[in-house]
């Protein structure tokens, strides 16, 4: 995607399989929103080819759109509707596009229970709390039983309990419904918990593509071993924590306590990837200036 003479996205290439949960991470301005809007059909790429459920998104018809679900960061319309009335109304638009193997829409009461709004089914949308409104956003996004679901910062405003319930819902949709899910989030712990695969976008390019475990092993690879021996605390960084701990106990038959192994987190990996990319870009700009 090019705006004027500026390439916002360059050579972005990836695929997502049925039932896979893919998290798109990246700093602000990396091109995440533009990527998602191209996939949803709201923007046309300047060049290149995109296929979503077998179609060019910009040319998808109503049948194609019925297979998509979109949960935006915020949506403040329909404040006078009651929760059940709104979901039942929106769901009716999907009925003509149901198939024998994928009837549409979700049953309204089942959906309300699934997203945790059963006690608020007859409440006006304007009266919902922020977390309850976010659950309604999710319900609207999946009411048509989509094959592909886009989630943009889905748990913003959720309390810890609601966040855990939502994570269970995502796993259910991917495992039982075979729904492909592409989500953006700034919560790296959430991405690590939900995603089968993580894409890191920086400077308009995908700079990493793999499972959380694969990225951690490839980028950081080191672990911290922390222990106390004879009252003194020690910290050691190693590539092979298991071998180091084994050798530690060979050297000290007694006196070792409070042993802890800290492996690199997704946050460590993400920061290392982005910093490496930004460092390389800075070097390129310096060379270009010379």
UniProtKB/TrEMBL annotation:
Keywords: Antibiotic resistance, ATP-binding, Nucleotide-binding, Transport
Record-linked InterPro entries: AAA+_ATPase (IPR003593), ABC_transporter-like_ATP-bd (IPR003439), ABC_transporter-like_CS (IPR017871), ABC_transporter_ATP-binding (IPR050763), P-loop_NTPase (IPR027417)
ABC transporter domain boundaries: 1-228
Superkingdom to which the source organism belongs: Bacteria
Keyword Transport: yes
Stored PROSITE patterns: ABC_TRANSPORTER_1 (PS00211), ABC_TRANSPORTER_2 (PS50893)
Subcellular location, record wording: Cell membrane
Membrane-related topology note: Peripheral membrane protein
A GO term for molecular function: ATP binding
SUPFAM superfamilies attached to this UniProt entry: P-loop containing nucleoside triphosphate hydrolases
Entry's family note: Belongs to the ABC transporter superfamily.
Protein name (database record): ABC transporter ATP-binding protein
Lineage of the organism: Bacteria, Bacillati, Actinomycetota, Actinomycetes, Pseudonocardiales
């Amino acid at each position: 995607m090019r705006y004027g003479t500026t390439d916002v996205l360059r050579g972005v290439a990836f695929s997502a399989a049925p039932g896979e949960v893919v998290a798109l991470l990246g700093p602000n301005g990396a091109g995440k929103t533009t990527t998602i809007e191209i996939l949803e059909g709201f923007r046309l790429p300047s060049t290149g080819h995109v296929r979503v459920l077998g179609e060019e998104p910009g040319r998808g018809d109503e049948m194609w759109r019925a297979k998509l679900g979109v949960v935006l960061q915020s949506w403040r319309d329909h404040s006078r509707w009651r929760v059940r009335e709104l979901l039942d109304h929106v769901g009716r638009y999907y009925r003509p596009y149901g198939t024998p193997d994928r009837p549409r829409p979700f049953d309204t009461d089942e959906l309300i229970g699934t997203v945790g709004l059963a006690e608020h089914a007859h409440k006006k949308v304007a009266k919902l709390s922020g977390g309850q409104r976010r659950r309604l956003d999710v319900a609207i996004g999946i009411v048509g039983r989509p094959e592909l679901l886009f989630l943009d910062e889905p748990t913003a405003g959720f309390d810890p309990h609601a966040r855990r319930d939502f994570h269970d819902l995502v796993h259910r949709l991917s495992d039982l419904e075979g729904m492909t899910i592409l989500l953006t989030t700034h919560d790296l712990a959430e991405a690590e918990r939900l995603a089968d695969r993580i894409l890191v976008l920086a400077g308009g390019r995908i700079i990493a593509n793999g499972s959380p475990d694969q990225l951690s092993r490839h980028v950081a690879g080191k672990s911290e071993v922390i222990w106390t021996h004879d009252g003194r605390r020690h910290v050691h960084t190693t590539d092979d924590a298991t071998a180091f701990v084994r050798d530690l106990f060979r050297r000290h038959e007694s006196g070792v306590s409070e042993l802890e192994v800290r492996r690199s987190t997704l946050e460590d990996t993400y920061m290392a990837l982005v910093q490496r990319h930004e460092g390389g870009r800075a070097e390129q700009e310096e060379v270009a200036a010379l």
